[in-house]
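Weekly structure sync, notes
Attendees: PL (lead), two postdocs, one rotation student
Agenda item 3: pending single-chain targets
PL asked that the sequence for the first pending target be pasted directly into the notes so everyone works from the same version. It is reproduced below exactly as submitted, 54 residues in total.
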Amino acid sequence: MLALIILAAVLLTFWVWALVNRDAAAAFMQPFLHVPLIAAGMIALMAVGALVLR
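Predicted structure, written out during the meeting:
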C-alpha cells in the first residue's frame, strides 16, 4: 500500500511540474496533461481500498 501512495505522489508531482512548465519543457505533454492526475487519483483510490479491505 505504501508503494501505491508513493506512486500516486510521484504522478501528482509530475502533473504539477508539467503545469508549471507548460510552455517549455513539457510542451509535448499538452494534449495528455490530464493523464497523470487521473492516474494519481485512481492509484489513491486503490490505496484507500487496500486499507479498507485489510
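Discussion points:
- Residues 2-52 form one domain.
- The chain has one domain: 2-52.
Action: rotation student to compare against the earlier draft before next sync.
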